[in-house]
Amino acid sequence: MPRSENASDLQADFDSLRPGDSTEQGATRRTALKAAIGVGYAAATLPIAAQTVVKTSDEGLRAGPIKYTVNGFEVPAYAAAPAGKTGLPVVLVVQEIFGVHEYIADTCRRFAKAGYLAIAPELYARQGDPKGYTDIPKLQAEIVSKVPDAQVMADLDGALTYAAANGGDVQEAAITGFCWGGRIVWLYAATGKVKAGVAWYGRLVGQPSDLTPRHPVDVAAHLQAPVLGLYGGKDQGIPLDTVDKMKAALATGTPAAKASQFVVYPEAGHAFHADNRASYVKEAAEDGWKRALAWFKANGVA
After folding, report:
1. Contact status, residue 298 vs residue 89, Cβ threshold 8 Å
2. What is the pLDDT of residue 29?
């Protein structure tokens, strides 16, 4: 089966789980996965920590699972917001390959503590639950490869509709996402439905397919909201030459495209914000978070 771009995103996330694994056992895992997926290496399971390094309290928040309907389907999501407040700026939080697990929920609570209504939809919900998988090729084949971009865009639209009815001001809306979700940030920033985006190590180039017809470099010149790209200089899954290609495409585009920026952290690899696993790089993660909040504020989402 040809490897899709989603498979590349999957590979990049899994590569971050066991950085520097040079043991004979690790080499065997890498060889097996290379045969199954076609590139790189990764662990054979999902060793996501049961407890994140940062645990954000929900005190003072209304936070927890929600559902909203899109085209007759109930989309599950996690939402967090300051309790008792309305007219809140909105941030859509787009999951990693692994779905809306505790790290993504905690990220929503962090945004809520900063004054936002944050919503993280389960964007694979129609295809299945990625959190139940321990076999990487099976996860790719049964869920990730079957998720159409059009479905994702519609579910994000639905999250904004939910926000508007539940205390959010969608005239002040932004989007952020991590790896698989970082790619989605660039795509959604071209729709005109948010005012700003922050993409954490999202893939920028790829081969078109029926389900993923365009990639960030293809929409770069048409952005309707400026995007801040936060990337790792040691990310083995996202070569820095693709960042250069994206910069060149942005430079020919709309005012929002030209206003977009990149920050590359030389000593960080993939998933450096993910404080639930060994890829976490504290300095880069904290600096990126501060930059994300400042970016939203500078672009009228605060």
Report:
1. no
2. 39
CA distance 247 to 130: 33
**Total structural domains in the chain?**
1
Query: Which among 133, 156, 157 has a CA at the least distance from the CA of 144?
Result: 133
CATH code of residue 67: 3.40.50.1820
Of 196, 195, 194, which is closest to residue 159 (Cα–Cα)? 194
User: Contact, 40 vs 7, CB < 8 A?
Assistant: no
Is the CB of residue 284 less than 8 Å from the CB of residue 232? Answer: yes
73-82 vs 117-121, strand pairing mode: antiparallel
pLDDT-based confidence at residue 52 (cuts at 50, 70, 90): low
pLDDT in tens, 182-193: 999 999 999 999
Cβ neighbours of residue 189 under 8 Å, at least 6 residues apart? 175, 196, 197, 223, 224, 225, 226, 227, 256
Q: What is the pLDDT of residue 53?
A: 62
Q: Please list the residues that pair with 93 across neighbouring strands.
A: 176
Whether the predicted pLDDT of 25 surpasses 90: no
Range(s) of the domain holding residue 110: 5-298
Q: Which residues are annotated as catalytic? A: 179, 235, 270
pTM of the model: 0.87
pLDDT of residue 168: 98
Please give the Cα distance from 149 to 226 (Å, whole number).
Answer: 20
- With a cut of 70, say whether residue 202 has pLDDT above it: yes
Residues 253-269: pLDDT tens digits? 999 999 999 999 999 99
Give how far Cα 277 sits from Cα of 8, 19, 49, 102, 266, Å: 20, 10, 6, 12, 19
Nearest to 78 by CA among 67, 90, 89, 88: 67
Q: What is d(CA 163, CA 54) in angstroms, rounded to the nearest whole number?
A: 26
DSSP structural state of residue 58: -
